[in-house]
Design brief:
By secondary structure, the chain is an alpha+beta fold. It contains two helices and three strands. The protein has a single domain, classed as Translation Initiation Factor IF3 (2-Layer Sandwich), CATH 3.30.110.20. The longest helix is centred in the middle third of the chain and has 15 residues.
């Protein structure tokens, strides 16, 4: 719920037209939950704009690199 409150604060405090939620790794389900709770319970006028899924190469401390899942959901006022 704290992430939901941050999204609401970004919309109401700054009069933003859109807010983008970004995560890496296994938090994909969390941003979907945050977006849907915000839209369905608190700000029914919001629409899902873009959904982006990709990978990012991360350098490891031990050397080498690995690919990490990235995800973005953009919410906007209709």
């Amino acid at each position: 719920m704290s992430y939901v409150m941050v999204v609401i604060a970004n919309f109401t405090g700054t009069n933003a037209r859109e807010v983008t939620l970004k995560v890496r790794r296994r938090a994909v389900t969390m941003i979907v939950d945050v977006a849907e709770i915000t839209r369905r319970r608190f700000m029914k006028e919001l629409d899902v704009g873009r959904i982006t899924i990709g990978t990012k190469e991360i350098l490891q401390e031990e050397g080498g690199s690995r690919n990490v899942l990235t995800s973005e959901i953009t919410l906007g006022r209709g």
